[in-house]
Amino acid sequence: MKSTPYFESQDLVIRANLDFTLSELPKYWFGGDPFKSRFFDALGLSFPDGEKYFIQSVRAFRDKVTDKDLQNDIADFIKQEAQHGIAHNFMNDNLEKQGIPVKKMLRKIKEALDYNQNNKTPEYNLAVTVAFEHATALMAESFFSKKSTFASAHPHARALWAWHTIEEMEHREVAFEVMKQVGNVPELTRKCAFLQTIFVVFYFAFVRTNAILRYDGFTRWERVKLMSKGINWIFGPKGFMTSNIPLILDGFKKNFHPNHHPIIAQYDVWLQALEETNDPIYAGNNFWEAGK
Asked: Are 37 and 30 in contact (CB under 8 A)?
């Protein structure tokens, strides 16, 4: 019987106060393409509140963890997620300046996350966090595994997503290890949470993309055309996410572990570039250039 490969964990590194100069981004920063720009704006919209939810869900089990290495990883996971929330708030500030009612759009997201925290079990919330971390790590890998995907993106926004990708690789197993070691999450609960999460990630990404395009002034028919072309860019025969769908669905397997998948190939390229220059935009460009 063929054994499942297992890839070693990466060190979690806290990189605070990286300057992506996001105030210089044009409205349609992804090569002037409204859908591509607004799809990634929509994805990032919920990150500040989402990261808080993930932190709370893992923190609920922190006192039960006796493994010192995992305790350290939890601390670093919390710090990394907090930095992600701060950085994506700058993107949300840009949207506000462009006339997008960010606070109104975030209200429903916050209500949904608060509902989970107040009405679901800690085990369920941890399982949801595990599912989100798995999905976002593979989505992030999809963004940069092929150079063509982010080719037309503004270098500053591309650098932000590159940094986020790197850190998703670094902490992708932390919530899972908490669940495995002390979470006592029933397998059915884990799979139900995973199913809900996969639906929520993609459904709300497209719903929010459509909403932002509507606020931009596009008619319903214009949005239909933009969304149809955009969904094909993501999930079509040559879509950048298509090849990773089976890997995302690996989360349903009973013996699943995030480290069964390799980290993105050019991970070390980003680390070296940032170490040499402390410039996240330069590192992001090198990271993108190293894609296939």
From this structure: yes
Helices 187-215 and 122-145: crossing angle in degrees, nearest 10, is 60
Are residues 270 and 283 in contact, defined by beta-carbon separation less than 8 angstroms? yes
Long-range contact set of residues 84-87: C-beta below 8 Å, sequence gap at least 24: 84/47, 84/51, 84/164, 84/167, 85/47, 85/48, 85/49, 85/51, 85/52, 86/48, 87/18, 87/20, 87/160, 87/163, 87/164
Tell me the whole-structure pTM to 2 decimals: 0.95
User: In whole angstroms, what is the distance from residue 153 CA to residue 4 CA?
Assistant: 36
> In DSSP terms, which residues pair with 30 in a beta bridge?
153
Could you give the dihedral angle defined by the CA atoms of residues 63, 65, 69 and 75, in that order, rounded to the nearest 10 degrees? -30
26-52 residue pLDDT tens? 999 999 999 999 999 999 999 999 999
Sign of CA pseudo-dihedral 133, 134, 135, 140: positive
Domains, the chain, ordered by start:
34-264 (1.20.910)
Task: Please state at what angle helix 34-45 crosses helix 220-235, rounded to 10 degrees.
Answer: 80
Category of 26 on φ-ψ map: left (φ > 0), alpha (ψ -120 to 50) or beta: beta
Convert the pLDDT of each residue in 174-185 to its tens digit: 999 999 999 999
